[in-house]
Amino acid sequence: MAKAATRSPARDALSLRVGRRIREARTRASLTQQEVAGERYTKAYVSALENGLIRPSVAALDYLASRLGTTPGWLMASEQPTWTRLEADLELAAGNWLKAADAYAELLETSVEHGARAEILRGQAEAFARLDRGAEAVKAASQAVELFEATGREVDAALAGYWLSAGFYYQDNVAEAKAILTAILGKVRAGLRVEPDFKLRLLMALSSNESRDGNHQIALSYLEEVRALADTLDDRRRAAFLFDLAYSYCESGDFEAAIRTGYASLALYAASSTTIEMAKVENEMALAHLGAGSVARAAELAAAAHERFAAAGDSRLLAHVLDTEAQIAAARGEWKEALRLGGEALELAEKSGNVDAQAQALLTSARAHVALGDAGTAEVSFVAAADVARRLRRRALLKRVLTEWADHRAELGDHELAFKLTREALAADS
């Protein structure tokens, strides 16, 4: 391990700068020195780096940057900014979220006036939200909102508030996310002059939050309002709207409508060559076909989504499609395969911090254990799935977990617990 570093007799400027940035990135990611070190290095090695006592090799920089969610270039960058504001904004517009986040972080280290700082923070908040790094998005966006409001820039504060809401959404704090969006929408309807596109984004975001909270009819009402404005959307935003509409239909049990709108969304995404979005729709379409009883078509769509997510290296979303494949195996009566796939989905969900996929994978595993006659392990999975669903405040998911768990307890003759679970499931639906 010592070979990975070059000793620095006096703590030179580069070693100190790299050390400071490693510490900054580690703190930002809420990691310990041991967690950053992983299996390749030691806590003492990371500590020595952070204190500028040694200089890392190129291999060590590559490894540590990947652990810290940043790039080797950012860790070694000079104190003078290598990014301009325009370059950072272009990276954001191009969908290079990690590069944009690093660029904005570097720009924030320089002395900029409040207005420019607020704009940089808003860009950084968007980049973090796109990366599903909710806590960091909330931190950046809340600062941006405060700075914009202090200078009377209401429209800019509203735009920053949108990304603040997104940060809370990715932290599974749906109540706070909805409250922020509702307040902004109220200002827009009261006359705050924003771009028409922004109003559509607000409505679609509110729909997504209501769907996650199990309020599918409310979600659909927001999407119907969007439908009236859909002629103003470009193909990509129309595809996003149709995807949200398909998701709401699927969650409410209208699988035929979900399939119909899902295919329309998929066609628009294919035209705009957005791979990840296409994979999301394919996975949602697989679930809709599964709900409608078309298992073979569901398997085809899930396989396509799996291939796209794997190629993109998106383990967070891959966890979802692995669980979809587990549900497809279960529908075929292949319970051991369902259990294997559900286990893979659960492992990936835990590693990527995808709590939503974790809850669904636990439920799928519980179903498989019941089918295989392992009542004890099924009980453990039901308990864990219900705990996660309660923590997420996902009422629709919690109702499914509790209902299936109650049926399982009733079959075992435990009618008292079955009744208690059924009562909680009915309460979750109210």
Task: Give a description of the structure.
The protein has 430 residues and is an all-alpha fold. It has four domains: 2-76, 434 Repressor (Amino-terminal Domain) (Orthogonal Bundle); 92-194, Alpha Horseshoe (Serine Threonine Protein Phosphatase 5, Tetratricopeptide repeat), CATH 1.25.40.10; 215-313, Alpha Horseshoe (Serine Threonine Protein Phosphatase 5, Tetratricopeptide repeat), CATH 1.25.40.10; 323-430, Serine Threonine Protein Phosphatase 5, Tetratricopeptide repeat. Helices cover 77% and strands 1% of the residues. It contains 23 helices and two strands. The chain has helices at residues 13-28, 33-37, 43-50, 58-68, 72-76, 85-93, 97-108, 114-130, 134-150, 154-170, 174-189, 196-212, 216-228, 235-251, 255-271, 275-291, 295-312, 315-331, 335-352, 355-371, 375-392, 395-411, 415-428, and strands spanning 5-7, 54-56. Strands 1-2 form a two-stranded antiparallel sheet. Helix 20 (355-371) runs antiparallel to helix 21. It is globular and about 70 Å long. The N and C termini lie far apart (58 Å). Residues 1-10 have low confidence and may be disordered.
